[in-house]
Design goal:
heterotrimer; A alpha+beta (about 400); B alpha/beta (about 325); C alpha+beta (about 400); A: DNA Polymerase III, Chain A, domain 2; Proliferating Cell Nuclear Antigen; nine-stranded antiparallel β-sheet; 7 helices; 29 strands; about 20% helix; elongated; C: alpha+beta; Alpha-Beta Plaits; DNA polymerase, domain 1; Dna Ligase, domain 1; 4 domains; four-stranded antiparallel β-sheet; about 40% helix; globular; DNA replication (chain A); transferase (chain A); DNA-directed DNA polymerase activity (chain A); cytoplasm (chain A); DNA-directed DNA polymerase (chain A)
């Protein structure tokens, strides 16, 4: 801090200077703070990078796994947000900076950085002097090549994330399974996630160059979760997606969300999905979900809430028992039943996870035996598929 | 530091690494093995710079030290260099899970990643096994460097999958020379180079007042054991014990005594360039005249015996008393 | 069982009244006197009531009722999620307390158990003893209980059901006609709704009807299980109070001292393999699988360490055991010479209940057993569940659905 005392006396060159409305600054600092972690092993990542350019101000926060860039234009809709006096950049301690800007007294904030990176923040009667860090030290996020951009509606993207992200593995034993595997081909985006006990797959058509083809793009489930939180689906906006060799970028109007990709080959799950079935049932999604939910109350949580399931003539029976709590039987009426009788056991948790992500009123469940994976699909929608591995009882 | 600096101390290591870089044939995993202070960490950092440098000299393979990658490797801010150093006794759980995550993710800035694991022998079994998994199926653009002083403590399966580079300790004379280059007086430089082969530790010693005073006291004591002016026994109570008041301190003192006796032997053998107490050459010569080589080796074994008793927790003062009597016994002024 | 006939026994069945709700109330006195329900998911109106306090029941709240319906009956109902660790801890203290009266205590479930007080009751009247136990439980655990006193387990169990909460009911052999026989056969402990239906179909509506029916006829229709039911209806039950019923199943251990101290991983592996094989045999014999595994090492200097963990997939075979034990060994062995090695498995589950979550990438290896499982399913669907499997499975399959759905009535 010894430099701070001198900064006003010595005539040091200006490295960056701008002023900005406090509200806009606070709003955008909050956006990028979502990516900043205090637990980082890279010192510079404890900071927020602030860049003033001729068209506006960019803030960047990152924990190296995800990075968020937030852009504040000079003006928008006839409202003026910022004026730039000198372009440049600096990195400021994120926690301190974010606390300071929230509490500044005036509507406007001036930020001025000298050549020694001493940063003077003034607002109304208050003045802060912070030691800045060299923006050159900050990670370089991959540059966007304008050519290969995919477009997806924001609400649809959030949907796809919700319908697949839950099935990723949380165990480190096979790291590539902690991500959702994206494949883009023929204008379709297929997303697959599996923790090896269940699998979720969703295919949507997207707005992309016909020849755009990407394989084995494995996005960490955690990143997608964070992305989903910051996407505002009510706006009806579109998200631009750019894929680079190491990162994937999701770009909305003023926000850019980067996530590192997982390394390694995602297993070929297509060949693991059964193509024939021996028992096919159609029933109400909601009725089944509620019945399983109730039955799972008596199933042991630490052992995956196993419930028993069997077909009767025109209904199915779900049962569960626990030595401590007792037994429960639930019956759910069937719309149709084709094929063999079946008795099977499975994790109620996996079933609830899958059913609660299907919006369709009716589902078809296709079984090929008590020890083989079974499929849950909406009756009228081919784009979504949930697969669950049963539990073997001895 | 560049490869030319590394070559001064670790010629073989430097040659192997520069050759591999030149041919673009770096191994996926290196094991840097060797005693403390032999430049393993600096070499790992240098290799990381050479791997990421944007304006590397294609002939010499030297990283530029100026580009943003070279600078960030030194400042610890390069996001694709993962440097793990045990926090205390072992590598912590949080460090391990971060390491595993970094292994499984692609890089931040490109698909190139570089891992350095210091004191790799302190890895938990879990960390070692996942490391092994990575070494067995490495991503093409990932390099790992394991650093250890105790390679024998690593799992065989890991060692066998790494290219091992052995870092050799610097010769005493070379350390002393380097210290002198750093404006350290020759007598002090020679003594600290005799005590350690870790250059950093040697520099620390030279700037340590305790070390300099210890040297003075040993000179005084050794002068006394053969002189007539004052009784060395009195001297050890008056000055020696207050200074060498702990076992490890007295142990260093005993080493100094050993070097003194070795110096006398060197004079007998006309091997004066090896002399540590170079500023006391007149006294040493005088003592060499008064004692036979046999007497000196006898005294040296007395010092070694004292060191042994010290490590067996015998009382400091009784160890020293007995030693002083034996050191005097060899001179003309036996008590 | 034979010795049991020699002398009239005095058996208590102690049953905690609305245990979970009572424990919650004991833990949070604010809840006292208020209607309380325990439900799986408080935030979700679709969740069902697992149990409720007497105050809630008085207002029409019933076990298995959805929360929204329960709230309609009782708008001020307080709903909480189950706190099983607390219930288990309370249960443990309960049984400790009961064992301070007699070692002959058999835990049946978290909140009920039998006591054989024949010896204890030689100098105190059984009803006095029951009162003192009931009061002690209420004082120390703040949980009400009901105690049934009878000459055998079945009658004691029936008796404890007769008066709640804080009831003490004596059911002697000579009371059977007046107190037991008028009850509907579905009320009988051990009769589930399916059996009840079948019994009604042959004209048996009350316990008395069953008691007066033809034993051979019942045995023919319901097998050994029917025979037992007939005997119980007549007040006959020779089962002993077995304190070991739970204890004996707690753990299986195998250990061996090595002929020479070793630091050889190969020797360790061979030794553990041999122990694992023995444990596999004992698990098979007991028809259980285990959820906890522990490795014990004794070093040459007699220092011992034990390290273990809990697993999600039940341990059954020597391969399962080795798959867990070698990583534990590698993680914890410090390289010193080993004198003794031991393996312990515990936290058992009967095989009929044990399960294994199949894996998408490896389920094919389980398919070799598919024909067998199909065959069992076919037989079961023809002849009813529980025809194949251990006696324990048989018993469980016939436990009352109605009674077991909730714990406390």
């Amino acid at each position: 801090m010894q430099d701070v005392m001198n900064s006003n006396n010595h005539d040091t060159a200006l490295a960056m200077k701008f002023s900005i409305t406090k509200d806009k600054l606070v709003e955008n600092v909050n956006h990028v703070m979502k990516a900043v972690s205090s637990k980082t092993t890279i010192p510079i990542l404890t900071g927020i990078k602030i860049t003033a350019s001729h068209d506006g101000i960019t803030l960047t926060g990152s924990n190296s796994d995800i990075s968020i860039k937030s852009f504040i234009p000079l003006e928008e809709n006839d409202e003026e947000y910022a004026t730039i006096e000198k372009t440049g950049s600096v990195v400021l301690q994120a926690r301190v900076f974010s606390d300071i800007v929230k509490k500044l007294p005036s509507e406007f904030v001036n930020i001025e950085v000298d050549s020694r990176l001493i940063t003077r923040i003034t607002s109304g009667s208050s003045e802060f002097n912070l030691n800045g860090l060299d923006a050159e030290e900050y990670p370089r996020l991959p540059l966007i090549e304008e050519g290969n951009v995919l477009h997806v509606r924001t609400d649809l993207l959030k949907h796809v994330i919700r319908q697949t992200g839950f099935a990723v593995s949380t165990s480190e034993t096979r790291p590539v399974l902690t991500g959702v595997n994206w494949n883009i081909q023929n204008g379709n985006l297929n997303c697959v996630a599996t923790d090896s006990h269940r699998l979720a797959s969703r295919t949507i058509s997207i707005d992309a160059d016909e020849n755009a083809e990407y394989k084995n793009i494995v996005i960490p489930g955690k990143s997608l979760n964070e992305l989903s939180k910051i996407l505002d689906d009510s706006s009806g906006e579109w998200v631009e997606i750019v894929i680079t060799e190491s990162q994937i970028l999701f770009k909305t109007k003023h926000l850019q969300f980067y996530s590192r990709l997982l390394d390694g080959n995602y297993p070929d799950t297509n060949r693991l999905i059964p193509t024939e079935s021996k028992t096919d049932i159609i029933l109400s999604t909601k009725a089944l979900l509620q019945a399983i939910d109730r039955a799972s109350l008596l199933a042991k949580e630490e052992r995956n809430n196993v419930v028993k399931f069997r077909t009767l003539e025109d209904s199915i029976e779900i049962s569960s028992q626990s030595a401590e709590l007792g037994r429960v039987f639930e019956n759910v009426e069937l719309q149709s039943l084709e094929g063999e009788e079946l008795k099977i056991s499975f994790s109620a948790k996996y079933m609830i996870d899958a059913l609660s992500r299907i919006e369709s009123q009716e589902i078809r469940i296709s079984f090929t035996g008590a020890m083989r994976p079974f499929l849950i699909r909406p009756v009228e929608d081919e784009g979504i598929l949930m697969l669950i591995l049963p539990v073997r009882t001895y | 530091m560049g490869f030319h600096d590394l070559a001064k101390q670790q010629k073989t290591v430097s040659r192997i690494l520069t050759n591999a870089l030149r041919r673009d044939q770096l191994a996926h995993a290196y094991l840097f093995e060797g005693p403390k202070g032999t430049g393993k960490r600096q070499a790992a950092s240098l290799l990381a710079q050479a791997y990421f440098c944007q304006t590397k000299n294609d002939d010499t393979i030297e990283p530029c030290q100026e580009c943003v990658n070279c600078r960030r490797i030194l400042s610890g801010n390069h996001p694709d260099l993962v440097w793990v150093k045990p926090d205390g006794k072992s590598i912590k759980k949080e460090q391990v899970s971060n390491l595993l995550k970094e292994f499984s993710y692609r890089g931040v800035e490109s698909i190139r990643k570089f891992f350095v694991i210091e004191e790799a022998d302190k890895m938990t079994a879990q960390a070692a096994n996942s490391l092994l998994k990575f070494i067995e199926e490495p991503s093409p653009q990932t390099i790992a460097v394991l650093i250890t002083e105790q390679a024998h403590k690593l799992l065989d399966t890991i060692v066998s999958r790494c290219q091992t580079l052995t870092f050799i300790p610097l010769p005493e004379a070379q350390i002393a020379e380097q210290l002198v280059q750093q404006n350290i007086s020759e007598p002090l430089a020679k003594l600290s180079a005799a005590v350690t082969n870790d250059i950093d530790e040697a520099v620390d010693y030279c700037h340590d007042e305790w070390f300099a005073k210890a040297r003075q006291l040993v000179i005084q004591l050794m002068e006394g054991t053969m002189g007539q002016s004052h009784s060395p026994l009195l001297m050890i109570y008056d000055q020696f014990f207050p200074h060498f008041d702990e076992v490890h301190k007295l142990d260093i003192g005993l080493d100094f005594i050993l070097y003194w006796l070795r110096d006398i032997l060197a004079i007998h053998l006309e091997n004066e360039k090896d002399i540590v107490f170079i500023d006391q050459i007149d006294i040493l010569k005088n003592q060499a005249l008064k004692s036979s080589m046999q007497q000196i080796t006898g005294k040296m074994s007395a010092v070694l015996a004292a060191k042994k008793r010290l490590s067996a927790n015998v009382n400091l003062q009784s160890v020293m008393e007995q030693l002083v009597l034996r050191l005097q016994g060899g001179s003309h002024h036996a008590v | 069982m034979d010795t049991a006939k020699k002398r009239a026994r005095i058996i208590f069945h102690i049953d905690m009244n609305s245990f979970y709700a009572s424990v919650e109330t004991a833990h949070d006195p604010e809840l006292r006197g208020k209607p309380l329900a325990i439900a799986g998911k408080v935030e979700d109106r679709r969740g069902i009531v697992v149990t409720s306090s007497y105050e809630a029941r008085a207002q029409g709240v019933r076990t298995t009722m959805p929360v929204w319906e329960a709230k309609r009956h009782c708008p001020e109902l307080i709903v909480k999620t189950p706190n099983f660790p607390l219930y288990r801890a309370t249960s443990q203290r309960l049984f400790q307390l009961l064992r301070s009266y007699t070692p002959l205590v058999q835990k049946v479930s978290i909140d009920e158990g039998y006591m054989d007080v024949t010896e204890v009751a030689s100098d105190i009247h059984p009803v006095q003893l029951a009162k003192s136990i009931q009061q002690k439980v209420l004082d120390t655990l703040k949980v009400p209980s009901s105690i049934g006193i009878a000459p055998n387990k079945f009658l004691a169990k029936m008796a404890s059901d007769m008066k709640k909460p804080l009831g003490i009911t004596v059911l002697r052999k000579r009371d059977i006609q007046s107190k037991l026989w008028p009850l509907a056969v579905g009320e009988m402990h051990g009769v589930g709704s399916k059996t009840e239906e079948k019994l009604k179909r042959i004209g048996i509506h009350t316990i008395g009807d069953l008691a007066k029916s033809d034993k051979a006829y019942i045995a023919e229709r319901f097998g050994l299980y029917g025979e037992k039911l007939y005997e119980r209806a007549n007040g006959i039950d020779h089962r002993m109070v077995d304190p070991e019923a739970e204890e004996t199943f707690k753990s299986i251990s195998q250990s061996t001292t090595l002929s020479d101290d070793t630091t050889s991983v190969a020797v360790v592996r061979k030794t553990l393999m041999m122990l694992a094989e023995k444990i596999e045999g004992r698990l098979r014999k007991k028809k259980v699988s285990a959820y906890q595994i522990t490795l014990s090492i004794r070093y040459h200097d007699w220092k011992n360490i034990s390290r273990g963990h809990t697993v999600k997939q039940p341990i059954q075979t020597k391969d399962d055991i080795m798959g867990h034990i070698m990583p534990i060994f590698h993680e914890h062995w410090d390289g010193r010479p080993i004198r003794l090695l031991g393996i312990t498995v515990q936290s058992f589950e009967e095989l009929g209940h044990a399960s294994k979550q199949l894996d998408l990438f490896s389920y094919q290896s389980d398919l070799k057993d598919e024909p067998l499982i199909q065959a069992i399913n076919q037989i079961e669907s023809k002849f009813g569940e529980g025809m194949i499997g251990s006696a324990a499975n048989y018993k469980n399959a016939h436990r009352s659905r109605k009674k077991d759905a909730g714990h406390d009535h």
